[in-house]
Write the structure tokens for this entry.
Amino acid sequence: ANHINNNKIIHIKHNGKQLHLLIDNLILLPEGMADIYTNLSKYRTTKNLVLDIGGLNTTYCVYKGIVPQIDTMILANTGGNIIRSKIASALSKQYGIVIAADDVEQIIKDSFLSKNGVVMEDSHDLILKVLTEHVNEIINFAKSHDISFYNTNVIICGGGSQLLKKVLLSKIPNANIVE
């Protein structure tokens, strides 16, 4: 068998104990699966979908119980930085001002744009429209790759999920959004 590290034993010390490891197989899985493995009794006998909305990408993976279905692991360019950019662009276009990248997260949390203490008219509706379109894009991407939301626990994690939380829950009310 082919072994990682060319059949060499890896020696490490952990909590004062010397450990010797020989790794002969390695599977890389998305970090979003952590909720499944920390709640085994909840997910062991169900169909589960993990959406990990990171900074740049959203990763998708369906689990039969706690077993990832590798053929369902897909990636979309719909991460948190993408939605920040869409919001900044839409607001800049609508109001003719430049929105600094540092301001966008607070604008999303507030659900409006204010300038010099004055809330910009219709900014709430514009922000909600852009967030909703983005969440629809995330959902439609999954559906276009034959990922179903029927009879499925939906676990959503990653930093982008916090920005989209309200809209995600309006579209996927049974979702468990993990911080």
Observations:
- The chain has seven helices and ten strands.
- Helices lie at 34-38, 40-43, 80-95, 101-110, 123-144, 159-163, 165-171.
